Amino acid sequence: MILAEKWLNYVETRIIMEELDLKNLIQILAKKWWIIIISAIICAAAAAFISIFFLTPVYQSNTTLYIGKRIDTNTDMSYNDILLGSQLVKDYRELAKSRVVAEAVIQELNLKDMTVDQLSARLDVTLKNDTRVIQITAEDKDPKLACDIANKVSEVFQKKVVDIMKVENVSVIDVAVVPESPVRPNKKMITAVAFALGLLLSAGIILLIDYFDNTVKTPEDIKKYIDIPVIGTIPVFPE
Description:
- 19% of the residues are buried.
- α2 (33-53) packs antiparallel against α8 and α5 packs across α7.
- The protein is of the alpha+beta class.
- The chain contains nine helices and four strands.
């Protein structure tokens, strides 16, 4: 019973101390609130300036294809004939980003300054919700070129997938269109993250400076650091 009471007293003491410490931290930050806000605004403004004037916008355009197999009514259909497994998306991705497709796209679009590796790096192929619909996405700094690459890769891919993978039913669902706005950089997100980091960084610096500051400024500091009661104070009068 005595041990339980001591444990409860210890827990209550710890809770009070933590509340006091938290209250002290809040008071420290409240005194310097204007520094925290100004620092956050400066960080957000700097991030917005960099994202607008120094980061190159990247545009994204995509086209969707339906890939299936021609159904032969004279033979029994297996499960693989009805649904193409989602694992095939890896095969489609490799084919769409292959050298044979990239070289054909570069030649037909007359992209003399672009290598096969550079073109492949700008492409991505994804499967739409476990269906037989795949999406070919192209990225570029030029929105018109991103659209042209997506459509041309789709066109070449249609021919190659028939020849190489023996898929006879390939149809275009949506052709790529010229994007109106870039996908990167996300200026709003960058600015918001910079603002939050500015808040945290400035608050952390303020708390760190206060932690290493061992000077006595108030009567409460005497009680806090030396644990001696304050008998009296001497006021400072103007000259």
